[in-house]
Amino acid sequence: MTPLSALATACVPIDHYSAVHVAASTARSLAEQCRLPGAMPDQAAVLASELASNLDKHARGGTLYIRPLPLGGGLEILAADRGPGMPEIERCLTDGYTTTGTMGAGLGAVTRIATHFTIRTDAEMGTLACARLALPEQPQAARQPAGLICVPADREQHCGDACAIIDADRTRTMIVIDGLGHGPHAAEAAQTALRSFHAVVDRPLTHILTALHRSLRRTRGAAVGILRLGAEKAEYCGIGNVRAVAISPHQVHHRLTGQPGVVGWNIPAPQSHRFPLAPGTTAVLHSDGIDSRWTHVPPHFLLRLPPSLLAGAVAHHHRSTRDDAAVLAALPHPRHS
């Protein structure tokens, strides 16, 4: 069985009202794969239906991103669009409110059903809304300060990127793997590296990268970036074009990319780079399916997003649809903050 952390994000463009049904059935199916008990798959379908319907009625360029929670324990449904924003956001979250003459249960129902719901809106970048369903015995999982999007290129059935966030030994370690090329062979390389990462996640970053290099020798290889977050510092180790970024609500503080090479084929001796991590800083790790220019002059709205929405905003507005794309965003492990 495929581990939940290996599942790509289900991406459902809301370009017609019929997509609302697709979104609901996709959410239900993924909730069942996540083994959410009882009525939770049906609740996931309702959340997806309401968020997708809201996009269809009020927004342009809307998409639903559906996937397991980044650190496990449930499911999340993230809605992103390209405007025009929600000027009366508090009223929109009230049961019965409507601007279209419909019942208006919409976002009010979402706030009631979701374990945790986060929403931000901007006139230029549009609205981002993340509804999370956590397992009954792990309600705190819905508030995990992390976001993850991993999607294949358009018209591809297999995602050649893979990523994960793992907490171990009071550290938070993030990885993005970009299998060379596209399609099933790239996906095979990415998933092979991800399995190897899970087995050695507690080791030093340079050792992890060396272990992944050995595991990928019979594949087409990959670019890999690994980021470990501590209380006031972070450590990055990478080969190939996987980028690490540290941002605060006011500016971008650090930009790093990997050493030249292909993991599994030919790499230099891995080197790690440490850099300070000021309080309130969010770490972002992404593949080259995300246009790196998003960090050049990012709007304040983007910089101030919580990690659960930041990953979705970066992916929705800055990914290339011709390439697989993965982006992670997270705060340090809570035991360090």
UniProtKB/TrEMBL annotation:
Domain of life: Bacteria
Membrane-spanning intervals of the chain: none
Residues in PPM-type phosphatase domain copies: 144-332
Pfam families: SpoIIE (PF07228)
Protein name stated in the entry: SpoIIE family protein phosphatase
Protein species of origin: Streptomyces durmitorensis
